[in-house]
Amino acid sequence: MPTTLTPPRAPETPILGSFVPFAQDPPRFLHQLAQNHPTADLIHFTFLGINNYLILNPDLVREVLVNRASEFPKSQRDYGILSKFLGDGLVTAEGEQHRRQRKLAQPAFHHKRIAAYGDTMVDYAADMVAEWQAGETRDIAHEMYQLTLYIVAKTLFDADKSRMVEVADKVGQAIHVLQEVTNHDFRRPIQWPQWLPTADNRARQGAKGVLDETIHTIVDERRQQETADKGDLLSMLLLARDDDGKGMDDTELRDQLVTIFVAGHETTSNALSWTWYLLSQNPTAEAKLHAELDEVLDGRLPTLADLPNLPYTQMVIKEGMRLYPPAWTLTGRTATATTTLGNYTIRQGADLMVAPYVLHRNPTIFPEPERFDPERFTAEREKELPRYAYIPFGAGPRVCIGNSFAMMEAQLIIATVAQRFRLRLAADQRVEMNAQITLSPLDGLRMVVEERARNSQRQPHLTAELAY
Ligand code: HEM
Fold first, then answer.
1. Is 335 within a domain?
2. pLDDT at 16 over 80
3. CA of 439 to the centre of ligand 1 (A)
4. What is the pTM of this model?
5. Ligand 1: which atom is nearest the Cα of residue 265?
6. Are residues 226 and 257 in the same domain?
7. Is there a single domain that holds both residue 143 and residue 166?
8. Residue 183 shares a structural domain with residue 300
């Protein structure tokens, strides 16, 4: 029997435990805990008597998320809150149901399939930029939100552009309301039953109604069409069959579409917003990005084929997600039985937290962790990182199914916009984190749009090319 150790504990008040400091600023609270115990593998804290462990050692992250994932399913509390609007889609399903759904959805995210979406991503980014005027101030967080919303709506449903805008706006608005009430739920120690006519429950019902009706209309229309494969994700989900030849029923389809819609745009939009912010504060990195774009693209719009030649663009995005991971913490995992993790005993029912925001600031792995330094992600240096020390997309059987989609989208959008513009933070813009389900800038991100001179000898000719 190995010796078991007691992990360090957060200093706490009776009964509430760490609830108040956690609720005030969750990522900072967790980061502070880690800083107070720089060599700890995990740290113990409580909420109203419930045991929580913040996992800090990448080897233990691997145990929880990968090697022993079935012993640590998603927490019932988080599951209960999320499933009120996501239903039983990929994010919230567990066990056999999750395995089946993942298998059915996987082909829709195959790299050959998503490669077809590259042109849509660039077209939509170019359309956005075409509206921008040099010298004006825009809320870049809003621009990124809208852009990624339209891209996911187009790639998911392949609606024509005018219809797509209507659908995206309607669904986007409903999802916004659902996210707000879900965020309130996460902050509440006790959940109200759904039948109670509270303001949040009524708002949830209304928004869910709009969402379900819109999605049912789209699915019904599609089922009546003759062409089975329209190249979008919906076609793939409709065509998917499990080993018994069984496809998704209407509820499964609804839950999957809502899940992908939700998981597939706000995360990417936040990754982009934070990257623009970090670039605006780091002129050397920004200049290097511009030099790469000028050299490789020389003024033309990027395509998928260019991505391998734009490594610095990718390094910038990776470093942005290191400092501001959109999924700042993963869904909590629960210990199904009293067990040993590393050298520690974990009690049955305890919640385990894996927080990329904290892991990515480990100073022994990322020296000067607050410094934005894309060079950390050169191919050679990335290979040297301990496994599971950098996990913006999670890990193991629940790793983000859309990670290649998201990286491709972020790289194409950064390349399209930065070809033509540099973004400067507006003088009066305060930048703070808003840690809800995802990590976004609290008061938006107003930035001044500046046209940039390209370092190209073919400039006059290329200016015409760039008049998208
Ligand atoms: C930068 C963008 C993104 C980030 C940082 C991100 C992050 C994550 C993370 C950390 C998880 C795992 C959560 C956990 O283990 O608790 C996850 C799961 C998931 N993501 Fe993403 N994601 C991004 C983009 C996308 C996109 C574009 C899509 C779809 C188009 C997507 C769809 C999903 C789905 C369906 C799951 C659940 C997978 C499962 O449990 O099997 N994500 N994402």
1. yes
2. yes
3. 14
4. 0.92
5. 27
6. yes
7. yes
8. yes
Rounded to whole angstroms, how far apart are CA atoms 279 and 22? 30
Whether residue 288 is predicted with pLDDT greater than 60 in this model: the reply is: yes
More confident call, 226 vs 101 = 101
| Domain count along the chain | 2
Query: In the predicted model, is pLDDT for residue 228 greater than 80?
Result: no
CA–CA gap between residue 186 and residue 81 (Å, rounded): 7
Q: Which helix (H) or strand (E) holds 441?
A: strand 439-441
Name the 3-class secondary structure at 212.
helix
What's the CA gap between 238 and 345, in Å, rounded? 45
Within-domain flag for 82: no
Q: Give the burial class of 195: count Cβ atoms within 10 A of its Cβ; 0-12 exposed, 13-18 middle, 19 or more buried.
A: exposed
Nearest to 328 by CA among 364, 351, 363, 354: 354
Determine the average pLDDT of the residues in 44-63: 94
Whether 456 shows a pLDDT value over 70: the answer reads no
Q: Which residues line ligand 1 (CB under 6 A)?
A: 90-91, 102, 152, 259-260, 263-264, 267-268, 271, 326-327, 330-331, 392-394, 398, 400-402, 405-406
CA of 269 to the centre of ligand 1 (A): 13
Q: How far is CA 357 from the centre of its chain?
A: 12
